[in-house]
Amino acid sequence: MATADIHVPGAAAHHEEHHEHEHSQSFVSKYIFSTDHKMIAKQFLITGIFWALIGGFLSILFRLQLGFPDMDLEWLRPLLGGWITPQGKLDPEFYLALVTMHGTIMVFFVLTAGLSGTFSNFLIPLQIGARDMASGFMNMLSYWLFFLSGIIMFISLFLSTGPAGGGWTIYPPLSALPQAISGSGAGMTLWLVAMVFFIASSLLGSINYIATVINMRTKGMSFTRLPLTIWAFFLTAVIGVLSFPVLFAAALLLVFDRSFGTSFYLSEIYIGGEALPNVGGSPVLFQHLFWFLGHPEVYIVLLPALGITSEVVATNSRKPIFGYRAMIGSMMGITVLSFVVWAHHMFVSGMNPFLGSIFMFLTLIIAVPSAVKVFNYLTTLWRGNIVFTPAMLFSIGLVSFFISGGITGIFLGNSALDIQLHDTYFVVAHFHLVMGSASFFGMMAGIYHWFPKMFGRMMDAKLGYLHFWLTFVGVYLVFFPMHYIGIAGFPRRYYSWTNFDAFSDFLDLNTFVSVAAIVTFGSQLIFLFNFFYSMFRGRRTVANPWRSNTLEWTTPIEPGHGNWPGEIPTVYRWPYDYSKPGAKEDFIAQDVPFSHTPESNLDIENEMMEWEKEEGVIAVNESK
Amino acid sequence: MVKSVDMVGMPKRPLAMHPQKFAMWLFIVSVVMIFAALTSAYIVRQAEGNWLEFQLPGIFQITTILIVCSSLSLQWAFYSAKKDKLEGVKIGLGLTFVLGLGFLIGQFQAWSDLVQEEVFFVGNPSGSFLYVLTGLHGVHLISALIFLLVVLIFAFKNKVHSQKLVTIEMLATYWHFLGALWLYLYVFLLLYR
Predict the structure, then answer these.
(1) Other Cβ atoms within 10 Å of A484 Cβ, number
(2) Which residues pair with A158 in a beta bridge?
């Protein structure tokens, strides 16, 4: 790294100026209304962790009901109040609200805002070599709209009629009619209001990410030299810009149906023998609109995790990522295909079976790019000098979930099988593995890997290992049995099954799942302790703790506003020059010119060296 | 030699647009998606039958002319700014504002005409869709009017000229887009009644 600043004359002068600058910020502009992408990323991260705890806690509540239906829940009364019935049971309508809010919080607040918001904000400028995002103000607005959305959603948890209870997919007429269940009253209204702010936040974020990646790359950072993380965040943002407006349109029409009496989704409904005035609506229309967002949303959640994994796996295998261009191609393929498969969520909605078979065909094609990615991860690991950092373990865990959850996706993509398995626990098991757990593990890998860059300190690795193994084993113990419960036909979102003899046999399995879920949730406390303890008391890090190639490790240990004190480094090579034959070290950072590494250059790279000279890079060769 | 430099991809500034102008285009993409969703919902719903047919208000023809004229006057203001004719900028922007306001009033009048025709917001979805499409377009036009007002204030402070074109350029992009969007919606409504 000693060679890094040789070709930036005058760097030292700039150095001083920037340092003067950053100390003059007040507390409010530094920590609260900050426009610095790193601080905004941390805000997203902390808020995401907060929501993950709430979402996880809600799931423990309904797992108690499912695993221990005879349990006396009187001890929860101080917390849940009226939602515990006089008999000491969970209120059935509150159970539905719990399921709904768990889904909403986890999908949108944790795995969209918490994952994309954190790592897109943090890594895009640092890895492409930019001082900040295209618009710092828009970025700040994006966070605070998310925060506002979160506050509204949080308030809805405490309504006397309960939060929204129609499932996270809010299908009308259930969600459109306050008479349907108590959760469709004020709770649903607040849900919709919160989501409008969330959509606005997400759009502002996505627009900013795309504008930054395209326009603010440093010198030499061509698209084929971008780290795969950036490719993943970029394509995620593209999906977001194209799909979230559609959710907005769907929600807008639902608001009109709920509050103004239109009939976009409602038709010929009788409640208590009385006909409602709404005529001519189509509930399937909502499903089409919703899933046009809903399916790409799966990839909004998953792609950033896959991008993070690419980076972590390559760094810690000390090998170039296998099939860099194939990775980009498969991510592009996933991006395009994600928009043409939405109706596979609707095989049982009375859709034309011919249309169903088209969507089945398109859905199964997604297996191809997904499999390419999996094989590329495995071949990157193959015969690498693997360093098992906690981040690496979480990445390998992601690959494992992506395989086991992806295979059940092939089952469900077939309409004939889906008609049997639709809305059973098989589906729950499938998407919790492939989307929920895989993305969660990607997020964890990202936190463990970039914690040193965020806070200038290391997280404790031993606690990280403990956290990983408890979570990894726990997740499989929770979701694997659910496949059996689902194949047996048990439907999701049911409060209780003990009334049906056929399902009573599965009580043991459900109890087992619940115990595993509680242990897994409990083991996240290890992470929490590690995270907050290391933030203040962790071992101080070195500049490049993982010996990684990407640009963020060329910044000071705790980068100030503007990221690089001097000139932004120029990029001369792709980010995966690990263990290059002949090289002095097993990694060559992106900002090292080819003229500094004559011992490891390929023929074509020696040619490029000639051009470097013309561009004014002074080759420093000690032997001369 | 220059050619081979391109081939091996030597360090050079990557292609870059003005980030804010670029963000404006992305915003436009998201608005396109909203209307794409709504108009495809319209087609899907219409295919299911039970669809009320009615005449579109005639005033739509007038508002269409108004919005096309407003685009022309805004483009004139932009060219004037490019040539540093500051008076032209003010007149052009002012004229655009008046035309835009006229368009909105016309759209509102169209709603009254619809009520006269007994096509209500609450009722058969064919009517509701018309109100939603025009209303949502109107909301976007109001946002464009506010943007226009900001640029107009800049213009009166003589801050819009050939060295400071970014804001008026972004405004023009957005305004022309909303005009084109209205043309699309109008043709769409004429074709799928």
Answers:
(1) 14
(2) none
pLDDT tens digit string along A504-559?
778 889 999 999 999 999 999 999 999 999 999 999 999 999 999 999 999 999 99
Chain B residue with Cα closest to A604? B8
Kindly list the distances between the CA atom of residue A189 and the CA atoms of A18, A51, A152, A256, A613, in Å, as whole numbers in the listed order.
48, 20, 10, 11, 64
pLDDT given at position A615: 61
Interchain proximity A282–B31, CB inside 8 Å: no
Which residues span the domain enclosing A98?
Answer: 35-266+279-537
Whole-angstrom distance, CA of residue B149 vs CA of residue B100: 11
CATH number of the domain enclosing A505: 1.20.210.10
Considering only CA atoms, which of A319, A457, A461, A300 is closest in space to residue A393?
A461
The residues, any chain, with a CB within 8 Å of residue B120's CB and separated by 6 or more, are B114, B127
Of A623 and A366, the structure prediction assigns the larger pLDDT to A366
The confidence score (pLDDT) of residue A31 equals 82
Domain boundaries, chain B: 14-50+59-191
Q: Does B31 touch chain A (CB under 8 A)?
A: yes
Q: Is residue A457 part of a domain?
A: yes
CA-CA distance, B26 to A138, in Å (whole number)? Answer: 13
Measure the N-to-C terminal CA separation of chain A; round to a whole number of Å: 19
Asked if pLDDT for residue B9 goes beyond 80, the answer is no
CA separation for the pair A546, A316 (Å, rounded): 8
Residue A551 located in a structural domain:
no
Give the burial class of A78: count Cβ atoms within 10 A of its Cβ; 0-12 exposed, 13-18 middle, 19 or more buried: exposed
Could you say which of B8, B16, B29 has the minimum Cβ distance to residue A241? B29
Provide mean pLDDT across the span B122-151.
94
B14-50+59-191 fold: Four Helix Bundle (Hemerythrin (Met), subunit A) (1.20.120)
Q: Is A588 inside any structural domain?
A: no
Whether chain A has a CB inside 8 Å of the CB on B49: the answer is no
| pLDDT value of position A496 | 85
A361 domain residue, yes or no: yes
What's the rounded Cα separation, in Å, for the pair B23 and A136? 12
3-state secondary structure of A584: coil
CB nearest to A281's CB, from B10, B36, B125: B125
CB contact under 8 A, B30 and A241: yes
Q: Is B11 on the interface with A (CB under 8 A)?
A: yes
Which residue in A138, A261, A285 is closest to B122 by CB distance? A261
Find chain A residues with C-beta within 8 A of B19's C-beta: 134-135, 211-212, 215-216
As for how many domains chain A has, the answer is 1
Q: Which of A219, A252, A256 sits opposite B11 (nearest CB)?
A: A219
